[in-house]
Amino acid sequence: MAIPDKTAFENAYKCVSPFVHNTPVLTSHLLDDLSGTSIYFKCENFQKMGAFKMRGAVNAISHLSEAQKKSGVVTHSSGNFAQALSLAAKNLGVKAYIVMPSNAPKVKREAVEAYGGIITTSMPTLESREEEATKIVKKTKATFIHPSNDINVILGQGTAAYELLQKYPDLDCIFTPVGGGGLIAGTALAVHYFSNKCKTIGGEPANADDAYRSLKSGKIEFNETAITIADGLRTHLGDKNFPIIKELVSEIITISEVEIVAAMRLLWERLKIVVEPSSAVPFAALLKERQRFKNQKIGIVISGGNVDLSNLPF
Q1: Among the three residues 92, 114, 144, which one is the final residue of a domain in this structure?
Q2: Rounded (10°) angle between helices 80-91 and 106-114
Q3: pLDDT given for residue 124 in this prediction
Q4: N or C: which end of the chain has fewer CB within 10 A?
Q5: Pairing label, strands 25-26, 251-255
Q6: 3-class state of residue 150 by DSSP
Q7: Pair type for strands 38-43 and 25-26
Q8: CA-CA distance, 261 to 265, in Å (whole number)?
């Protein structure tokens, strides 16, 4: 698969920027001292609908033809992409059909409904989700948009790192979480085209380390189980994002559940912001390997802040 070129990336940014926030970048002297680095946190938890996924959803819908827009869009998701596609579709005047598993959090279902998404409930398996999405496509002629394995979604997600590099062009590394692979692939493209020396590094739970193993083996690996507090990172890589990851991502660092919770708590306490567990994973990866990155300038994408406040791990 050919990797998208610089022009495709710049076009994605033009599509996305009128519809999303250019989110703030936060710093903390205490967290710099603790890590031995200078950290710049790109806070996508302040993005519309509370996560970076709004960027990819907007870009994917914007690239549809007028006929496709009339028929609507469909995806399957239990959380953030369900909300992102619903809100992006509403803002662009398009119908959104969302397949959500029966065990999706009530708060996320309510958010999708509030954004105008038309929900179909599936069994809590990938097969059931895909089956229901296929039925909707056949019935409505809606266009299926994958949450992470879609080139326009990937390009959209990369615009967060692009904004970070515009503000801090001399970063040594940008760390992101790794789940389905859309964010890290998009980030790697931004780094590749708009930085001379920066590296892209992923953080991943050791309990769901398929991307770490995939980068080592050179082929897409899967998890038999993925029991992690970082619920947004339980998905696996796809055939559109993996070639980009394989070519442009320097490494993926795995961390324990205890390290994820400790990093999440630090971010809440020191940055005074709401950060979901998945978003704490890249910071946990930096803390784990801090000796290797000493005195470097590090960007970290805080991917989202959609947390069930009644179920915090501390």
Answers
A1: 144
A2: 10
A3: 84
A4: C
A5: unpaired
A6: coil
A7: antiparallel
A8: 6
Task: Please state whether the predicted TM-score (pTM) of the whole model is above 0.90.
Answer: yes
Residue pLDDT, tens place only, 282-306: 999 999 999 999 999 999 999 999 8
Residues 46, 63 share a domain: no
Whole-number Å distance between alpha carbons of 126 and 130: 6
Query: CA-to-CA distance for 212 and 214, rounded, in angstroms?
Result: 5
Q: Does residue 1 surpass a pLDDT of 80?
A: no
Asked if 179 and 235 count as a contact pair (C-beta separation under 8 A), the reply is yes
pLDDT score at 92 = 95
pLDDT at residue number 310: 83
The whole domain housing 75 covers 54-144
Closest CA to 168 of 65, 55, 39: 39
CA atoms of 276 and 108, how far apart (whole Å): 14
Task: Compute how many other C-beta atoms are within 10 angstroms of the C-beta atom of residue 38.
Answer: 17
Report yes or no on 98 lying in a domain. yes
Residue the block writes with tokens 């997600």: 157
Residues 96, 77: Cα–Cα separation, whole Å: 12
Number of C-beta neighbours around residue 278 at 10 A: 29
Cβ partners under 8 Å of residue 8, min gap 6: 151, 155
Kindly tell me if the per-residue pLDDT of 169 is higher than 80: yes
